[in-house]
Write a structure and sequence with these properties.
The protein has a single domain, classed as Hypothetical protein af1432 (Orthogonal Bundle). Helix content is 63%, strand content 3%. The protein is built from six helices and two strands, in the order H-E-E-H-H-H-H-H. Strand 1 and strand 2 form a beta hairpin. Helix 2 packs across helix 6. It is globular and about 55 Å long.
């Protein structure tokens, strides 16, 4: 998924620094092995959602705690399992229950989670989670997550439908280059 690229160099550095802090203190990189939507890993999805959230607050000039926004968004899907695996129906209602699992994992790895970050993680699936978000950061996360999820799912469908055509075209281009 292509991310918006209108953050200033200072904002890009701030984002990367917060991500570096999280990745050095947690198991977040483990989420790279699990798929989220389409062909997007949970890690890439979480980074895209956090970046999009930060982009939105900049674009809309919202006054939020940017550190909590980025960190909460990076941890919103910190469930650390493959939800596509339906063994024993364990993850069948993933959409309803993964925010609680993500929050539990985040609390295990971060003893300093703010109230805002906890609200973001716990309520990012609103309206599936019945209680609405309490903070602006949580609402921004809800919007960014739904945007990124929709885009990733649509791209996954497109890739699946047209994978054969794409592979045929790539083979044709390689063949043309060899014959030149």
């Amino acid at each position: 998924m292509r991310l918006p690229n209108n953050l200033s160099p200072e904002d890009e550095k701030k984002f990367k620094d917060i991500y570096a802090g999280i990745s050095s203190e947690s198991r977040i990189k483990e989420s790279a092995k699990n798929m989220q939507h389409g062909s997007t890993s949970v890690l890439k999805h979480s980074i895209a959602v956090a970046y999009t959230s930060f982009y939105l607050v900049r674009k809309l000039k919202l006054h939020v705690n940017e550190h909590d926004l980025i960190r909460g968004a990076l941890l919103h899907d910190y469930f650390l399992y493959d939800w596509h695996n339906y063994d024993n129906n364990e993850h069948r209602l993933h959409g309803f229950f993964h925010p609680g699992v993500a929050l539990r994992n985040a609390k295990q790895d971060f003893s300093d989670l703010s109230e805002v970050e906890q609200d973001m993680i716990k309520k990012h699936m609103f309206p599936l989670t019945l209680k609405p978000p309490k903070y602006i950061e949580s609402w921004v996360l809800c919007i960014a997550d739904k945007y990124c999820s929709s885009k990733e799912t649509a791209e996954g469908i497109y890739d699946r439908l047209f994978a054969k055509e794409k592979n045929d075209k790539e083979r044709s281009i390689k063949h043309e280059r060899k014959s030149e």
